[in-house]
# Entry
Amino acid sequence: MRLEPAPYFSDQHPLTIDDKGRLLIPSVTRQQLTPARELISQSSAISTDKSSNDKSADKTSGPEHLVVKIGTNERLWLYPLSAYRELIKSNRDELAPEDDALDFDYLHYALTKELVIDASGRVNLPGSMLDETNTQRDVYLVGARNHLEIWNRPDWDQKIKELRANSKLINLREKEHRQRATQSDTTKQ
# Structure
């Protein structure tokens, strides 16, 4: 079984959400989804009979499906469906899970919505999530490694200034974090 490559999203794109709540995903961003889609299609073709016309595996795990949730920074976060499933995978399936497990499930299942990228490359963002995050029409679609984020343009412009002003400190903290993680891994062995 071949594993799907992890998505990698970068860049920032100024976009406008239309009156119907639709956002055009730039073609360059859709192309970042393409390698995962091709791999899924190849493995689907291998596992299905040549006479079968069943494309359901491609529909449910392909990059034309995204998951939207409100992230920890109160922005809308978009994940490819298959990548999101990998992130939240858990071996905790229980008949009577504890409250913490239930809260995790509510947060990462009940409070998410599956979106479909239409033939024009647009997704229809849930109005309730747009309202809850106070997302305006003029936004940036921001690549954040394994997901995309939707930021109001003035908020992102301010965030860029903060990032540039604090870049040395941010890089130093990340370096320290990696060193602690390496030390922790070494002591476990």
